[in-house]
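Input for the complex:
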Amino acid sequence: MIKAVFFDLDDTIADTSRLAEMARKNAIENMIRHGMPADFDTAYNELLELIKEYGSNFDRHFDYLLRRLDLHYNPKWVAAGVIAYHNTKFAYLREVRHVRKTLLKLKEMGILLGIITDGNPIKQWEKILRLELDPYFDEVLISDFVGVKKPHPKIFRKALGKFDVKADEAVMVGDRLYSDIYGAKRVGMHTVWFRYGKYANSEIEYEKYADFTIEDLKELPGIIEVLNGEGKEDSDKKVHTD
Amino acid sequence: MIKAVFFDLDDTIADTSRLAEMARKNAIENMIRHGMPADFDTAYNELLELIKEYGSNFDRHFDYLLRRLDLHYNPKWVAAGVIAYHNTKFAYLREVRHVRKTLLKLKEMGILLGIITDGNPIKQWEKILRLELDPYFDEVLISDFVGVKKPHPKIFRKALGKFDVKADEAVMVGDRLYSDIYGAKRVGMHTVWFRYGKYANSEIEYEKYADFTIEDLKELPGIIEVLNGEGKEDSDKKVHTD
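Predicted:
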């Protein structure tokens, strides 16, 4: 009997790949518009490299970008980048299609709902609160706050403990095969790979850990029914078999 | 002959006292709305004390607020504070009355325009850019970037050097008697005290350094005319005489 469903946040609940790309591009455009002597492609590619090297939560991207472009420091350009980045981020922040409908349906089925995510706790909460999705979730576990990152078993076990449910009473839904699917499967949870966003074709070697693969969140309630033995045999769910 | 006019930024160009107050109050309200167990007055007063102690550019106000209230750390509450703070700040950010009209008039008179301000360079530029006031100014000097704070003579001398004008060819306009008026007068600039905002009755011991006192920026072009000997004798300017 499934009692709990856990979701990853980025590109499972919140549509963030597009947001980051648009925000970064607009930041570079605004820096150039305010006088930064660089061409767009060079600056954008340097920014992407920098983010790859320092991580997306590094808070001095635009300072370091100027250094990488051999430009003197100019707070006006940095401010132009920061403003455009934030304006764009908030404009593009939206939930993944069918999130709210699916969460409501699961709630009606009496399922406990949680989030298990990596990332900066304040930034992750900011997305949840701006989307006003917090009332749907009974628990939010953010790895940087817990002290371990997915796919470490500890964060999944901690999540199960919060709801006092066994691993086989819980489902993990996420877009990352390694951190979400392999991680949850290792502790014995049911797994649903949400094949979506920029990782739709990544880490395919971990696909064998996905019990189900979906491309639309609204397929989830049906999967819970299948797991509970209530599903129809002729279900059109893409059940992974191996 | 007056060739240049320099302005302070906060509460001279950008109306920021009200902005900070509204943003801080809304931050506390949103933290409480998201479950922070504190009453508004206690939390708001602790926040004000904290800002007084650590400065307004300290970037961990909300973390420290939780500590001061003896609450455990909760990134959700911090995020709720940050979101409300930023939304409110941008909603209330506006220019001081008659700024744009006055700047245009001074431009028409052939005057060079500059800003001399203290504070975090990126945050100060953010205000200028969000208000789209940057095209009006030929130079922006931010003390944290120059390495000295007002009223240090160096920042005023540096400003004069940027425009290649002598001190008595320049006017400083600001709301702070100590940092703006006393500071500029010490290097020999003409001074206009903009009696406005929360410092309208502060540091009165430095009022003797103000050549003129105004309560509306639109009085400025007339003052320049007076200084250039073009002004009418029966001007209603509040000329400070001592």
